[in-house]
Amino acid sequence: MFSDNVVISNIIAGGLSAGITGSVLKLLEITATRGVFDQKLNRKLVHISFGLVFMLCWPLFSSGCAGAVVASLIPGMNVVNMLLLGSGIRKDDATVKSMTRTNDHRELLKGPLCYISVLTLVTAFYWRTSPIAIAVFCNVCAGDGMADIFGRRFGRKKLPYNRDKSVAGTVAMACAGFLASVGYMLYFSGLGYIEASFKLVTKFLVVSIASALVESHPKSTQLDDNFTVPLAVFLFGTLLF
């Protein structure tokens, strides 16, 4: 996109993507430090925004393996950052506050590390021509993030099989994951990466409902939904797409 030389073009694309996603994270670090939002809400805004904004940058990269590998370095750098911060080797209170529930840096080695690792692997191996990549990103980021936000706000009615989860949260997750998936399907379809169809929309709906049900199961909380949700999307996506 930026040069006839694929290497140079991907380096420029990587720099722009890193700058854009880094700016989003920095803004949410500032809001966390200044207490603009409740800490749990701020954490979920990070959860939602990073992956979705990063996926918007995918068209900047070249097609094929080269673009996928360079693009995966963007979340990959954050994997390294999570390891350094979570182990205490590096100190960054603003990042810790924006991404954890308890301000304990060791928490970064759990859900946040799993989350960013999933995005890295999906980018590297599935990339922008795969509906599975769209489904994973949208259900992990938009779906899981909105489940927590709506569940805390409107979750008075609990699920009969899991009193820690609400009907509102589960419905919000299925809807948000599905709508985001359709939105990115249209986005990538307009750029010629995938072919949009009603059949594909139906498959996204099934995957989003399935991932919401998996997230609402008690075992998902025990194992960490940053692991169980992408695993569910991958399994159902492999069967459907």
Automatic annotation (TrEMBL):
It comes from the Eukaryota. One of its GO terms (cellular component) is chloroplast membrane. Keywords: Chloroplast, Kinase, Membrane, Plastid, Transferase, Transit peptide, Transmembrane, Transmembrane helix. GO terms for molecular function: kinase activity. InterPro entries: Phytol/farnesol_kinase. Its main location: plastid. The chain crosses the membrane at residues 6-25, 45-61, 67-87, 108-126, 132-150, 171-190. It is found in: Plastid, Chloroplast membrane. It is a multi-pass membrane protein. Belongs to the polyprenol kinase family. This is Farnesol kinase. It comes from Salvia splendens (Scarlet sage).
